[in-house]
Amino acid sequence: MVEKVRPALVLSGPCQANDRDLITVIPHTTTLRSSRFEVNVPLPFLKPGAFLAQAPATVPTPRALKLLGRMTEPQVRSIEDVLLEWLEIGRGG
User: Fold this and answer.
1) Whole-model pTM?
2) Quick one: 70 exposed, middle or buried, by C-beta within 10 A (0-12, 13-18, 19+)?
3) CB 37: neighbour CB atoms within 10 A?
4) Distance between CA atoms of 33 and 24, rounded to whole angstroms?
5) Bridge partners of 9?
6) Which domain holds residue 12?
7) What is the CATH number of the domain that holds 18?
8) Is residue 3 a part of any domain in this protein?
9) Structural domain tally of the chain?
10) Is residue 2 part of a domain?
11) Three-class SS string for 55-80?
12) I need a surface site. Which of 2, 56, 72, 82 has the fewest CB within 10 A?
C-alpha cells in the first residue's frame, strides 16, 4: 500500500506509561477492488470508499494526525466482523 495520509478507523485504546505508544488502524480507501474484505460504511466526513479489513496496521500514535469524526458501535462492529472473518477468528457468543 502506498504510504500516504489516509483516513482510518482506530481499533486500539489508550496506552499506559509502560506500553508502547502504538495504535492499530483499519485504513479507508477510495480505490476499490470489490473484495469481500472491503467494508463500505457511508460517513459524512469521508469520501465514498471502504475500510480495508484485510489491511490492519500498527503505527506510532503520533501518525494519527486528527479526528475526522466518530462511528456508531454497529458501524465499528461491521468492520470488526469482516476483520475477524479474514483472520479466521470466530466471535464468541
Assistant:
1) 0.89
2) exposed
3) 15
4) 23
5) 26
6) 8-87
7) 2.30.30.110
8) no
9) 1
10) no
11) CCEEEEHHHCCCCCCCCCHHHHHHHH
12) 2
Residue 93 included in any domain: no
At 87 the three-state DSSP class reads helix
Dump pLDDT digits (tens) for 1-50.
556 789 999 998 888 899 999 999 999 999 999 999 999 999 999 999 99
23, part of any domain: yes
Grid look-up 502506498 returns 2
CB 57 within 8 A of CB 24: yes
Q: Tell me how far apart the alpha carbons of residues 78 and 92 are, in angstroms, rounded to a whole number.
A: 15
Residue in this structure with the C-alpha cell 479466521, named with its chain if needed: 88
Task: List the beta strands (DSSP E) in the chain.
Answer: 8-10, 22-29, 38-39, 50-52, 57-60
Grid coordinates belonging to 25: 488502524
